[in-house]
Amino acid sequence: MMKNFILPLILMCGFYGMSQAELNKYKYIIVPTKFEAFKNENQYQTSTMIKYNLVENGFTAVYDNDMPADLLANRCLGLLLNLKDDSSMFTTKVTLTLKDCQSNVVYTTVEGSSKEKDYKSAFSEAIKECFVSLSGLGYKFEPTGDTLPATVSFKNDVKRIEEKASVAPKQNMPNPVVEQKATLEEQSYKSMEPVQSNITKAENKPAMALPNVDYKTEQAGVLYAQAIPNGFQLVDSTPKIALRMYATTQANFFIAEGDVHSGVVLKKGDKWYFEYYDGDKLMGQELNIKF
């Protein structure tokens, strides 16, 4: 009887140990302001409730529309939280999962349930049950080699410059203006004197009016940003890669490549747009991106 009790206990402790080590690699938990299971943002106060419980258990939780700069630059610093709703007519059932930037499931909570008739109270009770499996993990962010910020060393830079400067320039070495060859096999003469250029300075370019953009604003499907070298790939729910966007020196401005069109992805206000040329006409599509 004792063996039957001890073995599951050992396995459970091992599972929680591995779960803690895995979660410690991530600095943030990203909480959607609107879960796929619901029609409205923060429906039944699920988003605010989940973020509150995460913070109470030692996690750094952020909303998907208000992510810090380091997370925007490196999406793999955070785990995206998803709420799975398996409710029936009389019972509310939810499970929380945490996925990395490659959409791999890193952690799944126990299923929380409630028989409360009021939806807000039911989801609150069910979510609290889900956090039973997260409350005892003792989470603490531990940066790895992939998450440490890059450092630049300037050691010996001054020394190398001084060494280059110490090399004496060649003295009394006028530039040749004639190149000659005079051998039995080859005789030639080529003038190396500079020739006056006929290139004239361009006149001041007149200001160019910005083109009009025919934006398509109808609601498109959600695209999930997955980190790739130098940018992100946008994946739909199929999943299929809709666009690849590469970082530029401008914040929130990406070079974009798609199967049909290539252009740029940029942020205006709090919305993202894909701009591209169709023939000689500039087109635009509003994007619903989840980072």
Summarize model confidence as the mean pLDDT. 78
Q: CATH topology of the domain at 16-135, which one?
A: Rossmann fold
Q: Tell me the strand percentage band.
A: 25-35%
Largest sheet: 7 strands, mixed, barrel
Q: Report how far the terminal alpha carbons are from each other.
A: 50 Å
Task: Name the helix and strand elements from N-terminus to C-terminus, one letter apiece.
Answer: HEHEHEEEEHHHEEEEEEEEEE
Low-confidence stretches: 1-18, 150-154, 157-162
Radius of gyration: 31 Å
- Number of helical segments with 4 or more residues: 6
Anisotropy-based shape: elongated
> Order of strands side by side in the largest beta sheet?
10-11-12-13-14-15-16
Helix share, percent: 10-25%
Query: How many strand elements?
Result: 16
Give the structural class.
Answer: alpha+beta
Question: Would you identify the CATH architecture of the domain at 16-135?
Answer: 3-Layer(aba) Sandwich
CATH class descriptor name of the domain at 16-135: Alpha Beta
